[in-house]
Write a structure and sequence with these properties.
12 helices, single chain, 2 domains, 393 residues, alpha/beta, Aspartate Aminotransferase, domain 1, 7-stranded mixed sheet, 41% helix, Aspartate Aminotransferase, domain 2
């Protein structure tokens, strides 16, 4: 048998913990166990019918060929038009690169902006892939945490303490995975001003922007100056229940967009042609988009509120999510004998209670677990009931 030694490119790379948790739950289900999966980071709702019908029409019209690496022009144009409305300044379609999901858009940006020796500040708890993408780019991810009473949101004060002469950028995610925290306009303005003064790039992951329970979440496009060092990534995986369609995009300076498109030309080339046409329909039919999102949001809110009542009545510490679809629950106090209580709890919930959640260690928060309520309503409530019964904290 051939022995394989990982190259230095990926030697430090860790498997996506969120994907691994979901895969294990699916494997146990296939083995016959009735697992309630509250680990998935994707909506359980079907893709809206009007989007699917648009894909059918595109197929019938022969949309099965390569497109421009950066995406079909009508899709890039409508993304740029929306960005222009939010930015109150012209955003040209050449600033948009359509990618195979926001994950690829984020990777493109990290790889194009940062390199060996660079430090990038990452608000923590944060999505697991931010740290790994920066590792692949040979940059260093620097975790930065705000106060628990502020849902761990960072401010200029935390940035000032974490900065060094090697700091080159900052990743923001609002609404946040895993906490559901949403930054206010004032909070974002303070962060942008600090980053601008420091000469940093800001990479803003806004994939959950459409899923906000406190009104519309503020986009960095409406806060940062048009000439700023800003890349915004977004997509339709969450707001239109289109995770498997693999459609995301980035908006940034035209010169950077060209570099990111060049990088993409050597990895995946264009995003799936059919999916691009489906995305164009989703963004073009504003009324249908809003109606589908409102229907999904109403059910997500019902799940969120019901689960919060159950957890609070049990005395559990949980961060109330203002956006996204996750409950971040305290699983215990770390100690030398138990450095990752969240991991132990997640294992026990799966092994003894048939509930799959994600251990907080995946987000650099070992005392916590993440529970998704983007699952069938009955499963969410039964899963939370089992969590409460297990007495995790």
């Amino acid at each position: 048998m051939t022995n394989y030694t990982p190259s230095s490119n990926i030697r430090l790379l860790q498997e996506s913990a969120t994907i691994a948790a979901s895969a294990r739950a699916k494997r146990l289900r296939a083995e016959g166990r009735a697992i309630i999966d509250l680990g998935a980071g994707e909506p359980d709702f079907p893709t809206p019918r009007f989007v699917i019908e648009a894909a059918h029409r595109a197929l019938d019209a022969g949309a099965t060929r390569y497109t421009s690496v950066a995406g079909i022009e009508p899709l890039r144009a409508i993304i740029a038009e929306d960005a222009t409305r939010r930015r109150a300044a012209l955003v040209d379609a050449s600033a948009v690169v359509v990618s195979a999901g926001t994950k690829q858009a984020l990777f493109n940006a990290c790889f194009a902006l940062f390199a060996a020796g660079d430090e990038v500040l990452v608000p923590t708890p944060g999505w697991t892939s931010y740290y790994e993408m920066l590792t692949i780019a040979r940059a260093t991810a620097v975790p930065v945490s705000g106060p628990r009473e502020c849902s761990f949101k960072i401010s200029a004060a935390e940035l000032a303490r974490a900065r060094t002469t090697k700091t080159r950028g900052l990743i923001l995610n609002s609404p946040s995975n895993p906490t559901g925290a949403v930054y206010s306009r004032a909070e974002l303005q303070e962060i942008v001003a600090f980053a601008e003064d420091a000469g940093w790039w800001i990479l803003s992951d806004e994939i959950y922007r459409g899923i906000c329970y406190t009104g519309e979440a503020t986009s960095l496009l409406s806060v940062a100056p048009p000439s700023g060092r800003l890349v915004v990534v977004d997509g339709l995986a969450k707001s239109m229940a289109m995770p498997g369609w693999r459609i995301g995009w980035s908006i940034g300076p035209v010169s950077l967009a060209r570099s990111m498109a060049a990088l993409q030309s050597h990895t995946t080339s264009n995003a799936t042609t059919i999916s691009q046409h489906a995305a164009l329909s989703a963004l073009s039919d504003t009324n249908a988009y809003r109606s589908a999102l409102a229907e999904m949001m109403a059910e997500l809110r019902r799940r969120r509120d019901g689960a919060l009542v159950m957890l609070r009545q049990a005395g559990m510490e949980v961060i109330e999510p203002e956006g996204a679809f996750y409950l971040f629950i305290r699983a215990g106090q770390a100690s030398p004998d138990n450095p990752e209580p969240g991991t132990r709890v997640a294992e026990r919930l799966l092994d003894s209670h048939d509930v799959a959640v994600v251990a907080g260690a995946a987000f650099r928060a070992p005392e916590w677990i993440r529970v998704s309520f983007a699952a069938p309503t009955a499963d969410v409530f039964e899963g939370v009931r089992r969590i409460v019964a297990a007495g995790i904290s």
